[in-house]
């Protein structure tokens, strides 16, 4: 905004769009969705609130649930039955209990006092937070598979819907759907029963919550499970897309596309619309998905800020999913270092985004024959000749009041820009490519702080870093008639991968500092997967971008999350009897460590968690940290919930919290996380863990090994664990302190405890970090 103010707005837009996983160039054609701003409104104004009531105590029909919720509203608030009915927005009754209703602040406060209510919170909007990527993490086409088990797995995706005609959702070779499946395909705009098949076995949409902001516009949305945006099709196909040879984006990234578990079944739950993704609809999707019988849920959306567990629709739904043995993977968010990770409940697998060993380059050659290797998803080929190169400041209208370097929409004068390559600087309100196209420009050179992620543009373009931007600017200023060429896009190997994506939200978990978040990383940079034929690759409208391919290349933790869902499903297909805790532990303890010496990885486990997924290795981890349903119930007790509230959440009347005080650190998590303040960094942080033996052979001894960095001390007792039988458990105690925290710029120190023998290596991250919140 002033120059710094504008930069701040620009940053906010970048964060929002990366969370969605859409191209940077789409800024001008999309209005970013903010959280509901009604918190500033009068206490007499009605807003939609979620009234969460815990587990379902008894089976009920929708009519029974609606009548019960109307009676509760009427008796608690003194409303007539008719007034209560009018205020009711949605009822949840299949998998957990609760409802959404239009309430004033006073009424919401009154509902909180009802003994049958766990929590009451505003329903707000959440943001929508691969031919090569599976090979990169070791899950190749030749990896061991169990097709029969895989074909019985149902993956639920809560997102923007699906484009069912995409080749990656073809059901050739599939057998009949299991008789235990309870889902269905809802009909609607451009969506009939024939759009489902033996692969896409369920498709539902939810709009009662979002419609409280106004009716949906069917010129911007399909009022059906059909995907208007592309995001949902992209995430779903990453998990279980059928094998498609020759998949590419206009010749880029050409290869054989496939998901992690291409024989699995898909159930789509559409909750995201042009106006956003509402909490009330997200809870409705969870309620249906759990009842339908999904085995996994992949959720590439989340709040802009972390939300308390009891006020977070995703945390609530995921708890009840975990209760039923369903693995839930969620995006950590795309706010980089500026915000904390979201979706941090410990029963969720929280996913960071990392790079793969592939980079898309869009080279820029200056008239002095210096070539700069910029990045872009460049589907255009310019004529092989020199074009005049001008800075944006020389191409603006004479009376322009905009910052002359930013290329804001409407700022460029066609008389000055037509037929030229325009050099723009980061910092405006977006739409730089639209601005250059409007002015008749032939190409764009865009100087940005981070050029490690490629985006598609409306014309030939090259993203360059600040240092390279200075090089371009210097050439322009020292040359009487500067010229340049934008060369065709190149795809090359990036040897230093994996690197943490700059946009991936960092930890720690601000609600439970002793629980590591994010949990794990997965490919989320420049991922090719299925797309909606209703949307362009830049998400500009058809008059600006007519390109409508079957596939698109985008980035975000939205893209990383389905990789983890797919990895978890692959593990389940090989180990069908494993539950969520075994799968999560196996993925984390077998993850590939990052190289901490790389600048992109400087935040260590606060950025990338346990490391990058290694799906095949996770099928045989040797030992696991088992933290099941009862452990998470005990965890709730450590968070201040009393026995009555915990009983409501679990639906078990015999649930009691212990009288003695315990801490969340007792949760048997596959990582050791110590939060320190400057005045207490010399104190010892002590906890314990339990390992379960699932290795083969079962009679093995594991020896502990730690490479402790300077400034950190770690003790483990015992340092040897001997197992004699399958499912046998052994515990160890661990203490850490970190005098090196706060020295210079050091805010995090880490190492790993590795339990190893000649067959297995079980890696447990150990982290000490400085609390700054």
Automatic annotation (TrEMBL):
<dbReference type="InterPro" id="IPR000209">
    <property type="entry name" value="Peptidase_S8/S53_dom"/>
</dbReference>
<dbReference type="GO" id="GO:0006508">
    <property type="term" value="P:proteolysis"/>
</dbReference>
<feature type="active site" description="Charge relay system">
    <location>
        <position position="231"/>
    </location>
</feature>
<keyword id="KW-0720">Serine protease</keyword>
<dbReference type="InterPro" id="IPR010259">
    <property type="entry name" value="S8pro/Inhibitor_I9"/>
</dbReference>
<dbReference type="InterPro" id="IPR034197">
    <property type="entry name" value="Peptidases_S8_3"/>
</dbReference>
<feature type="active site" description="Charge relay system">
    <location>
        <position position="159"/>
    </location>
</feature>
<keyword id="KW-0645">Protease</keyword>
<keyword id="KW-0732">Signal</keyword>
<dbReference type="Pfam" id="PF05922">
    <property type="entry name" value="Inhibitor_I9"/>
</dbReference>
<dbReference type="GO" id="GO:0004252">
    <property type="term" value="F:serine-type endopeptidase activity"/>
</dbReference>
<dbReference type="InterPro" id="IPR036852">
    <property type="entry name" value="Peptidase_S8/S53_dom_sf"/>
</dbReference>
<dbReference type="InterPro" id="IPR015500">
    <property type="entry name" value="Peptidase_S8_subtilisin-rel"/>
</dbReference>
<feature type="domain" description="Subtilisin-like protease fibronectin type-III">
    <location>
        <begin position="667"/>
        <end position="767"/>
    </location>
</feature>
<feature type="domain" description="Peptidase S8/S53">
    <location>
        <begin position="151"/>
        <end position="609"/>
    </location>
</feature>
<dbReference type="InterPro" id="IPR023828">
    <property type="entry name" value="Peptidase_S8_Ser-AS"/>
</dbReference>
<feature type="active site" description="Charge relay system">
    <location>
        <position position="558"/>
    </location>
</feature>
<dbReference type="InterPro" id="IPR045051">
    <property type="entry name" value="SBT"/>
</dbReference>
<dbReference type="Pfam" id="PF17766">
    <property type="entry name" value="fn3_6"/>
</dbReference>
<protein>
    <submittedName>
        <fullName>Uncharacterized protein</fullName>
    </submittedName>
</protein>
<dbReference type="Pfam" id="PF00082">
    <property type="entry name" value="Peptidase_S8"/>
</dbReference>
<dbReference type="InterPro" id="IPR041469">
    <property type="entry name" value="Subtilisin-like_FN3"/>
</dbReference>
<dbReference type="InterPro" id="IPR037045">
    <property type="entry name" value="S8pro/Inhibitor_I9_sf"/>
</dbReference>
<comment type="similarity">
    <text>Belongs to the peptidase S8 family.</text>
</comment>
<feature type="signal peptide">
    <location>
        <begin position="1"/>
        <end position="27"/>
    </location>
</feature>
<keyword id="KW-0378">Hydrolase</keyword>
<feature type="domain" description="Inhibitor I9">
    <location>
        <begin position="48"/>
        <end position="127"/>
    </location>
</feature>
């Amino acid at each position: 905004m002033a120059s710094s103010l504008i930069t701040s707005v620009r940053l906010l837009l970048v964060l929002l769009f990366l969370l969605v996983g859409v191209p940077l160039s789409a800024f001008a054609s999309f209005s970013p969705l903010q959280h509901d701003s009604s918190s500033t409104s009068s206490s007499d104004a009605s807003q939609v609130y979620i009234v969460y009531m815990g587990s379902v105590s008894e089976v009920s029909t929708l009519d029974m649930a609606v009548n019960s919720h109307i009676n509760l509203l009427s008796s608690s608030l003194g409303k007539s039955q008719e007034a209560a009915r009018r205020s009711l927005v949605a009822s949840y009754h299949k998998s957990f209990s609760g409802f959404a209703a239009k309430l004033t602040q006073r009424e919401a406060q009154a509902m909180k006092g009802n003994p049958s209510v766990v929590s009451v919170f505003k329903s707000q909007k959440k943001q929508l937070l691969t031919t090569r990527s599976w090979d990169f993490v070791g899950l190749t086409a030749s990896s061991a598979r169990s097709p029969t088990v895989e074909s019985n797995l149902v993956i639920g995706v809560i997102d923007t819907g699906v484009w069912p005609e995409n080749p990656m959702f073809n059901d050739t070779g599939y057998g009949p759907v299991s008789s235990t499946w309870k889902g269905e395909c809802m009909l609607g705009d451009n969506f009939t029963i024939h759009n489902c098949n033996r692969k896409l076995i369920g498709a539902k949409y939810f709009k009662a919550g979002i419609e409280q902001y106004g009716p949906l516009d069917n010129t911007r949305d399909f009022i059906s499970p059909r995907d208007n945006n592309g995001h949902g099709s992209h995430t779903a196909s990453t998990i279980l897309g059928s094998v498609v040879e020759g998949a590419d984006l206009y010749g880029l990234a050409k290869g054989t596309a496939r998901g992690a578990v291409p024989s699995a079944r898909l159930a789509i739950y559409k909750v995201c619309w042009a106006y956003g993704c509402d909490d009330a609809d997200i809870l409705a999707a969870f309620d249906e998905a759990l009842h339908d019988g999904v085995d996994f849920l992949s959720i590439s959306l989340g709040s802009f800020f972390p939300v308390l567990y009891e006020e977070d629709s995703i945390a609530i739904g995921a708890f009840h999913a975990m209760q039923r043995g369903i693995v839930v993977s969620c995006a950590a968010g795309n706010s980089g270092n500026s915000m904390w990770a979201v979706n941090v409940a410990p029963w969720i697998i929280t996913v960071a985004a990392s790079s793969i060993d592939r980079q898309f380059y869009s080279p820029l050659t200056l008239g002095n024959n210096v070539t700069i290797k910029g990045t872009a998803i460049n589907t255009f080929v310019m004529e092989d000749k020199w074009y005049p190169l001008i800075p944006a400041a020389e191409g603006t209208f004479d009376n322009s009041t905009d910052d002359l370097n930013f290329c804001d929409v409407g700022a460029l004068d066609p008389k000055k820009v037509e037929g030229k390559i325009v050099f723009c600087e980061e910092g405006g309100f977006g739409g730089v490519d639209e601005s250059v196209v409007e002015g008749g420009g032939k190409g764009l050179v865009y100087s940005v702080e981070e050029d490690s992620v490629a985006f598609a543009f409306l014309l030939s373009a090259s993203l360059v870093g600040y240092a390279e931007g200075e090089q371009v600017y210097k050439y322009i200023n020292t040359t009487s008639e500067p010229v340049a060429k934008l060369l065709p896009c190149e795809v090359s190997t990036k040897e230093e991968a994996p690197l943490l994506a700059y946009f991936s939200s960092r930890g720690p978990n601000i609600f439970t500092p002793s629980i590591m978040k994010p949990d794990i990383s997965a490919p989320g940079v420049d991922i090719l997967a299925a797309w909606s034929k209703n949307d362009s690759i830049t998400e500009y409208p058809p008059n600006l971008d007519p390109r409508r391919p079957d596939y698109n290349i985008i980035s975000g933790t939205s893209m990383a999350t389905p990789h983890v869902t797919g990895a978890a499903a692959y593990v389940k297909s090989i180990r069908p009897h494993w539950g969520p805790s075994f799968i999560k532990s196996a993925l984390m303890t077998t993850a590939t460590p990052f190289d901490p010496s790389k600048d992109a990885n400087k935040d260590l486990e606060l950025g990338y968690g346990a490391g990058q997924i290694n799906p095949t290795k996770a099928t045989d981890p040797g030992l696991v940290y088992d933290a099941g349903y009862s452990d998470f119930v005990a965890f709730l007790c450590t968070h201040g919930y009393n026995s009555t509230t915990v009983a409501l959440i679990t639906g078990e009347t015999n649930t009691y919290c212990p009288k003695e005080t315990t801490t969340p650190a007792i949760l048997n998590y596959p990582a050791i996380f110590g939060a320190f303040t400057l005045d207490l960094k010399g104190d010892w942080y002590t906890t314990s863990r339990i390992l379960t033996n699932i290795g083969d052979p079962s009679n093995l001894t594991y020896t502990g090994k730690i490479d402790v960095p300077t400034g950190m001390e770690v003790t483990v007792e015992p340092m040897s664990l001997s197992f004699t039988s399958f499912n046998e458990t052994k515990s160890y105690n661990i203490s850490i302190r970190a005098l090196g925290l706060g020295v210079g710029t050091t805010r995090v120190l880490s190492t790993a405890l590795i339990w190893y023998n000649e067959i297995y290596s079980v890696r447990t991250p150990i982290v000490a970090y400085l609390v700054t919140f």
